[in-house]
Amino acid sequence: QVQLVESGGGLVQAGGSLRLSCAASGRAFSTYAMAWFRQAPGKEREFVAAINEEGGNSYYGDSMKGRFTIPRDNDRSPVWVSLQMNNLKPEDTAVYYCADSPWYGPNMQYDYWGQGTQVTVSS
Question: N- to C-terminal Cα distance for the chain?
């Protein structure tokens, strides 16, 4: 059974940091690219960050560059993909989801999604 389980969400003040984690199990996730998305109330789902299978390449949404990083640990079981968020802003408030893709790069296709974890940034 494929599972993506996010954790680490919570309430944080603006300027603070938070680290989300996604535990991926049920398939060979070390061979899959992984990504984070977010969705705020009343808004469309937004791309946050993606990382390739080995963890050597990543890219970010424009508003996340310089503030967020997406490390992954393929040596753990289940595979862990994190989202380190620094200098958080109220506009970062959203439900954050992790997802996997069979390939990294343009037109990534996402097969499985986690249930999401709420991040709330107070001003």
Answer: 40
